[in-house]
Amino acid sequence: MDKTNNPSVTRSSFPLVPIRSLGPRHRDRIAAHLLALDESDRYLRFGYAASDEQVNRYADGLNFERDDIYGIFNRKLALIAMAHLAVSDDPVQAKAAEFGVSVLKAARGRGYGARLFDRAVMHARNEGRDTMFIHALSENTAMLKIARNAGATVERSGSESDAYLKLPEATLATRLTEMVEDQMAELDYGFKQQAKHIQELLS
Ligand SMILES: CC(C)(COP(=O)(O)OP(=O)(O)OC[C@H]1O[C@@H](n2cnc3c(N)ncnc32)[C@H](O)[C@@H]1OP(=O)(O)O)[C@@H](O)C(=O)NCCC(=O)NCCS
To answer: How would you classify the pairing of strands 153-157 and 131-137?
Structure first.
């Protein structure tokens, strides 16, 4: 549900959102998440209305060693939101990272997009990156709002916009917070796995 359609849902209603780091074994769920996006969302996410084949190719081609992929799972362990923090192979851009994100329609307006952005920013800082880059269509109010809220400079060029966020250096606090958040997300995932297993046994 979009926040615009559901004003009672606010980010503060969902204070703790475990965000999990995803790996190659999550490829199928990543593909399922992206395939669930409709044509206009795929257009906003990829800059073109990606076909199922193109989505599958994107999921198959994800490089988990170079890039970082984050996900938010619901109680049934469906991936309801995911973000891709990509770094360039070009050494000139080695200090920059590019952010892409998608949240399933039913889970929108709860701050997941913004939280994934914050999570990616923290990781990028801890990895020594100095700039976060977001390429979005100019009509993508929600994405550009996330970037602007974080302090990014947005440069509009017709129907497309680029947002740049300068990242401060990592601190002990950002490093510790990332470690704690990773642990919490692992625990949360384990609990959800157990709960799902018990529910399956009972039914
Ligand atoms: C962009 C997207 C990830 C936002 O996810 P979300 O979880 O709904 O976003 P949030 O709840 O964190 O909201 C972020 C901000 O955008 C605002 N916002 C959310 N939906 C909005 C909308 N439809 N119109 C205007 N503003 C909107 C929120 O109010 C919030 O701003 P605030 O913190 O100042 O109140 C989601 O809409 C999406 O998946 N879109 C399709 C794919 C896409 O566009 N990806 C981005 C390009 S890489």
So the answer is: unpaired
